[in-house]
Amino acid sequence: MHEPSRANGRYGRRIIWLAVFIVILIGAYTAGWFWLAGRIEGETRAAMARLEKRGLTAECVNLAVRGYPFRIGVYCDRVAVAQPAQALSLAAGAFRSAGQIYDPMRLVAELDSPATISAPSGRIALDWRALRASTRLTTALPERISLEGADLRVGIDGKPQLVSADSFEAHMRPNEADLDIAGSFGRLALAPSLAGGRTIPPLTGEADLSLKDGLKWLAENSARDLRGQSGIIRTLTLQLGEKGALILSGPFSIDQDGLIDADLKVSISDPKALSSSLAEVFPEEESKIKQGFAGLAFLGSKPSLPLKITKGAATLGFIPLGRIKPVD
After folding, report:
1. How confident is the model at residue 224 (pLDDT cuts 50, 70, 90)?
2. I need a surface site. Which of 191, 192, 201, 305 has the fewest CB within 10 A?
3. Backbone angles phi, psi at 176, to 5 degrees
4. First-last CA distance in the chain
5. Cα–Cα dist 183/236, whole Å
């Protein structure tokens, strides 16, 4: 008669000890989370102080570390960065960053619009619907850094929406010693005032290139000077309107004087559609544009021509195009 009661007693004690263990585990996790949050907040404030020693000022209004229990990240109601000596400043809305506790090497951050960039040459106002950055860290360098956004609107010196884009993104990753860079934008629109009064159809672009020894360039070249660099353009595409695009690919290099050398291939997708779009932009040259593209029809539906650049002098096939200014 006493065996069932003793068994129930042992079972009850196990439940109690399990509950005590869970409470201790939750308490230790909570203490660890808030300790880490304090470290992150302290490091953030220290980083802002280090910027001030370099002549920069950084502001994070109502800085806080949030996300308990499964996330952790820095939050600011507003952010601003300025370089008073150069009269440069950037101010934007709320900033949020987060890393998952179960995947701490992947970090994401969001920035709210609007933003204002002020410089001696003028003032740029930016607005967007979404702007998000992400990175995956490794022991040495980030495995990948990405930036993507939607519904960008840009105004300059009080003139609203001179530039707009439905979408844009950029990606960067190490590839052994090289640096892979890719990006795209969708339906980029330019106000006629930026295009000499011309109406330009929406532009769509895509780029994928690799910079040789790009990691060394990032680490050692604080000015990001491209002189002395080389790489390969896997694809560089610019589409004008709904159809028709120019596609560029091939190796390039820039010497110490900033002069470009390149052995490229230029391909045209849907030449007829592209010629129609160009004729809309340059109606005074319509006959010449259509005549030139009619000649390309003999090369097929996707004609290609070599583009050779030697010390800044560009030649398309056998047609000289002029000189390209040295890269600053």
Report:
1. low
2. 192
3. 60, -120
4. 94
5. 10
